[in-house]
Amino acid sequence: MTSNSCPTTVNHPLTKGWIVHCVTASGAVCGMLGIIAVSDYRPREAITWLAVAMVLDGIDGPVARAWNVSHHIPRIDGYTLDLIVDFVTCIVIPVIFLHRFHMLPHGASLYIGAFMLFMSALWMSRTDQMTSDHWFNGFPCEWNMIVPTLYLLRVDQWVTAVVCVLLTLTQLTNWKFVHPMQVRRFRPLTVSITVTWLASVLWLTGVYPREPDVLTALIIACPVYILGIGVWRTLGSGADDAALAADLKATASIE
């Protein structure tokens, strides 16, 4: 038997498939460690574990598609596994973080947090989470990006509340948000800005409570960019038929 056909080799499709699923599932472990960090009042550790989970979440999808994991290991639904992990790392931990570190107005924290959890659970259940050209419909529960940014910038409690409520209100709408990895248009720029944001968050977390101006600008730039191209895609020329057709053709070529 050749090495390529032996299930114990790294190059075997089954082995590669299980590696991808294990990477995805390890996000749940990051979630556990993140919850422990929040409970122990260690915000910097919590943000770090959220960042690690985000990196894992960013690499497993493209690799799974490239290796055709769903075909080789049909017993495990990678999409469902991803949703389970994301609900913990992208929603539950950030909402607990908001409450634990007093980021919301006193007396309103539990109500706003409950509203975020409630609406995020509904968004996770949407059958039309994505458009045909892979833009998200409604805010895609990326609280693991929003909450650390607001915390590191020490945003006022009421401003934080308004930001969280407004984003939550979009979750059952068709307002568009970019998927950094799957939307072909602007993808090099989108991925570059996202990676820069993540590096800046980790750096700023390490030096917190100091706020170097360059790092502050960098972590603001990513959310502004994401919101900006979402507005463009929803209301502007990004929604024209020719653009959608080009994006679909480009996306299909990489899947």
Describe the structure in your own words.
Mean pLDDT is 86; it is low at 1-5 and 250-255. The protein has helices at 13-39, 43-66, 69-72, 78-100, 109-124, 143-152, 157-169, 187-207, 213-235, 241-252, and strands at residues 136-137, 176-177. By secondary structure, it is mainly alpha-helical. The chain is built from 10 helices and 2 strands. Helix content is 68%, strand content 2%. A two-stranded antiparallel sheet has the order 1-2. The protein has a domain at 1-91.
Please outline the helices and strands:
Blueprint: H1 13-39, H2 43-66, H3 69-72, H4 78-100, H5 109-124, E1 136-137, H6 143-152, H7 157-169, E2 176-177, H8 187-207, H9 213-235, H10 241-252
Antiparallel strand pairs: 1-2
Tell me the span between the first and last alpha carbons. Answer: 31 Å
Compute the gyration radius: what is it?
Answer: 19 Å
**SSE class:** mainly alpha
Beta-strand percent range: under 5%
Largest sheet: 2 strands, antiparallel
Strand order of the largest sheet: 1-2
Number of helices: 10
Mean pLDDT: 86
Q: How much helix is in the residues?
A: 55-70%
* Molecular shape: globular
Number of strands: 2
Poorly predicted residue ranges: 1-5, 250-255
> Oligomeric status of the shown chains?
single chain
SSE order, one letter for each helix or strand: HHHHHEHHEHHH
